[in-house]
Amino acid sequence: MRNRILLCLVFFSLSWVGIAQPLDKVVAIVNDNVITASELNAQMDVLRKQLEAKNMQLPPENVLRKQVLQHLIDVDLELQLAKNNDISIDSTELDESIAKIAADNHLSLTQLREELAKQGMSWDVYRENIRKEMVISRIQQRSVGKDIVVSSQQVDDYLKTAQHNEKSQQLFHVANIVIPLPEEPTTAQLSKAREKARALLKKIKQGDDFSTLAIAQSSGEYALEGGDLGERHLAELPEVFANQVIQMQVGEVAGPIRTGNGLQLIKLIAVNENTEHHEVTKTHVRHILLKQDANTTEAEAEKQVNNLYQQLKSGKDFALMAKQYSLDAASAVKGGDLGWVVSDELVPPFAEAMNALPLHTVSKPVKSPFGWHLIEVLDRKTEDDSEGYKRQQVRQLLQQRKFTEAVQNWQQHMRTDSYINIVDKDLA
User: Fold this and answer.
1) For the chain, which terminus, N or C, has the lower number of CB atoms within 10 Å?
2) For a pLDDT cut of 90, what percent of the chain falls above it?
């Protein structure tokens, strides 16, 4: 999976609301919006500081400006679409997301602020960037995510292939350089792109730094991070990538490889073993359900469940009480027995109460969307769920692979269908 520490290398145009600074030079027009020189300069300053903090070599100034502008154009297009679809992120949701980013990186909010300061980014700018990243993620999901389906057969097929590949459980740290192509390139366009890819490959083999060239020349999503895609499972990588990296040595660069969005050079940075072991706790549980119905008010249902609770505390048989009173017909005939369950399968109030219960102890009445429950835990056990977890993980990774490819195609369509005019010809 993508292993990025802070999501800091995020750059966004500030002009998407259509407001330009007076007398500020316009460098590009994107549909009805503009990107100004001051916005470009501000993003350039942030990028320089962040790349310097990572000790990454910067490409020439004019090359870097072109790359940043192209990124701002892409972001601006997606933000425009999000605005047209009334997509927004409120402050509460934003705060929760930032708190999760900090926690995922084992940082407090104070430590996150300090880390950002080291990278040359203010807290306010960071918050706004995360907000816009969330907006973009949401419009991508709405535009292409709903159509992404991975069948059980596709998971089976992948696992069947993977069991013969000792590298299927490894994590591949890769980087890429993307040379863009239109959806249906002419022979001349394809030839020109191949020539550029081969020229870049020659430079790399002669000792030029891959990440510096990616920053300068790539049109990929992670170009401004030196093309670094982080660690990926084979299932997450585009299939044409996956087939290539398993044949590569660490440090090797391969390509050009034809993909949906152009030609790509890929570098294998590292390979790590994925030794993740997954266990799951299963609980043997039974319950009695009471709820409001046509003949019972909510208050009456609550009174009844409290009465049953007192009877169970005094020694009444749980199974007999469930058969007589529970309104969960499927379990009532079995004395309320739900069998062995996993917390994730249950509604949160029920799961939380169940997990907190000692064995053979009846809970106080628990309210859930289904009604009032009396719960008893009969047994618990921990099982190795690595195989089930592996299937779930493969499904998610295949979904991510399909989603990434769909987003790339969608972005390409959006550029084709939009009016983009780079006014400053030095940046064209």
Assistant:
1) C
2) 49
Return the CATH number of the domain spanning residue range 165-276+390-421.
Answer: 3.10.50.40
Residue 373: which H helix or E strand, with range?
strand 371-384
Q: Where in the chain is the domain with CATH 1.10.4030.10?
A: 26-143
Provide the pLDDT for residue 240: 83
Coil, strand or helix at 184: coil
pLDDT tens digits for range 131-183: 999 999 999 999 988 888 888 888 888 777 765 455 667 889 999 999 988 87
Q: Which two structure tokens, joined as six digits, stand for 58? A: 């910067």
The encoded tokens of residue 328 equal 């969960």
Contacts of 289 (CB under 8 A, 6+ apart): 326, 327, 328, 331, 370, 371, 372, 373
* Burial category of 25 from C-beta neighbours within 10 Å (exposed 0-12, middle 13-18, buried 19 and up): middle
- From the list 97, 70, 68, 82, the residue with the least C-alpha distance to 6 is 97
